[in-house]
Amino acid sequence: MAVAWLISRLFLLSLTVHHANSITETESLLKFKQSLTNTKPLDDSWTPDSQPCGETTTQRWIGILCNKNSVFGLQIEQMNLSGNIDVTPLTDLSGLRTISIMNNSFSGIIPEFNRLTALRSIYLSGNRFSGKIPSDYFSTMVWLKKAWLSNNEFSGLIPVSLATTLPNLMELRLENNRFIGIIPNFTQRTLVDVDLSNNRLTGEIPPDLEKFDVKKFAGNPDLCGAKMGIICTKPTKASIAIEGPMKDANNSKYYIAFGTLGVLFIVIIISLVFKKKKKKKQKKTSRRSSEQDSNDDQQIQITVDGSRSGGSGKSKKSRSGELSDKSPGVSGTTDLVMVNKEKGVFCLSDLMKAAAHVLGNSGGGNSRPSSSGGVGSAYKAVIASGVAVVVKRVTVMNQVSVDVFDKEVRKLGSLRHKNILTPLAYHFRRDEKLLVFEFVPNLSLLHRLHSDHGEESQLDWPSRFKIIQGIARGMLYLHRELEFLSLPHGNLKTSNIFLGDDGEPLVSEFGLQRLINPDAQFQSLVAYKSPEAERDGSVSAKSDVFCFGVVVLEILTGKYPSQYAGLDRAGGANLVEWIGSAVEQGGWMDLLHPTVVSAAADDKTSSDEIENVLRIGVRCTGEDPDRRPSMNEVIDELTLEDSSNDDFITIET
Predict the structure, then answer these.
(1) Dihedral of CA 52/56/59/63: which sign?
(2) What is the C-alpha separation between 430 and 318, in angstroms, rounded?
(3) Distances, alpha carbon 588 to alpha carbons 462, 575, 653, in Å
(4) The architecture CATH gives domain 26-224
(5) Residue 230 DSSP one-character state
């Protein structure tokens, strides 16, 4: 009895304490505001008689980002704010995930934002913060993905906790500060953007950061290494040994010197041996290339069935060329290299025996534009084993060697994911290449979205949402596995996305940028329709993100994007400008496909999903690639059960 009484008293006491310490979001933010100066831009909306997350957008406080009527983001930028930031009130905002106070007038040491351990992103750029940041400052912020501290006056060493305690770090912006010393060894595989330029850093660039452009390290005259084109001079073991209190320092010096010479001698011998082997290999490759060139006039032949309407039983030859295996000395699997044997093993002669059907890319009808401008024509063939394959004839390839081509395609063939369509085999010739894929019987996403299949065949919202999620998963996998490529995909568009029997999307035609002739890339790869490519010719993984955003907007609206490579802009809608303008005017719902609008009207959950997906699509198609989310962030925003995003979801127009 006494125990029961004690438990009840403790329970009541805990409720009393909780009630005494509880504080509303309004009270927390108003208390936070008291630590700021020059708050005139906030005064009209940050009032005690209102809620930070009002029922409508117009009732929401300026600079507050909300999710389900709860504050998850603070975005007070370019307001000339200053003062000594008091972080304590913000600790009561349990849903707070992102903070941006960029381009204000804050100064002094870095505030105690590390007390907000659930933050996913923090943007402090463009202020006058100064002083050293403690080395363990970020050790409690294990969920942090983005840290922007650029354009301040920070000094001292780069906090080592950025490199050692943030497993999910994706973006690190430290440029235009006064950091000194060596760069910590960042090993996070998630890291996609780093900028350390214009500091006072010294020493060698760590190996895991060498994948980033040299301009990300510019303005640090004492940095060295292959990336900077400056040889690093490291202290020898001999000099270190002499400084120690060793009795026989001179003897050690001689031992180390002779040992160093011995190691150099061995390295020279090994180099000579490898060089000799390399010459032999080059001679063999040269002979193979000569044999290949001598047979270039032996064109590849594919027998194509007659008209699609089935009117004639006669066959005709493809205008793109002919397939035959008459090349002397080449037969069987040596002429068709398997890189993925999940659908069995077959050879070039198996393709010769199979009638081939030309596959088109039209959007469904002669009156509709097609997503043209791809890397080549395609044919369907059913081999004797019953396996249906697509043979892609590619004529815009670089004149790369067999060895380089083999290495690149084998890497692609080794990939396995339920949302990507991996190549099965290839055939190599100097002037054209064949890539063989599994044939997916269902139509491409381009056909499903734009062909006239009747109202009953329209994709409903759950199907569209499932497709968007699947594409995002496939793209994230490619961005992780092919992170060494500037364009892990490079040609993401709805004609290169197929639908499996289970409704899951299959992303195809990825990872080919390095094999395609540079002169043809602008016409062949849709990633070169991104703003940065059209502006200065630069592309990156964020160009893939732009393409993903265009696909999302296409799925939501059912409209043809003019951004597709080779598509006449007069024949399609510039979805990015169109949606951006509509969002600015508040009429974006009118632009969505009728099935999407109907779903939003019928179900609150679907409505929230649609609005969230639209915001993701707009963010992905932003002008500035640095401000676009990564595919990892896209996945988080699409799959979090409470729909709370890790970063800003405000529409940027």
Answers:
(1) positive
(2) 20
(3) 20, 12, 13
(4) Alpha-Beta Horseshoe (3.80)
(5) B
Q: What is the pLDDT of residues 301-311, one digit of tens each?
A: 433 333 223 33
Residue with tokens 């992103």: 121
Which residues neighbour 275 within 8 Å (Cβ) at sequence distance 6 or greater? none
Domain ranges of the chain: 26-224, 250-294, 316-639
Q: What is the DSSP string of 177-203?
A: SEEEEPPP----TT--EEE--SSEEEE
Q: For residue 497, which of 596, 637, 361 has the smallest C-alpha distance?
A: 361
**What tokens does 124 get?**
């402090």
Q: What separation in angstroms does the CA of 394 have from each of 412, 427, 430, 515, 617?
A: 16, 10, 11, 10, 31
At residue 6, the 3 state secondary structure works out as helix
Select the CATH number that applies to the domain covering 316-639 from these four: 1.10.510.10, 1.10.10.10, 3.30.559.10, 3.30.950.10.
1.10.510.10
Lookup result for tokens 């569209």: 464
Contact in structure between 385 and 343 (CB atoms under 8 Å): no
- Give how far the C-alpha of residue 116 lies from the chain's centroid of Cα atoms, to the nearest Å: 27
Phi then psi for 480, rounded to 5 degrees?
-85, -45
Model confidence over 532-551: pLDDT tens digits?
Answer: 988 888 899 999 999 999 99
pTM of the model: 0.52
Q: What is residue 123's three-state secondary structure?
A: strand
- pLDDT tens for 252-296 read 444 454 555 555 656 566 666 566 655 555 554 444 444 443 333
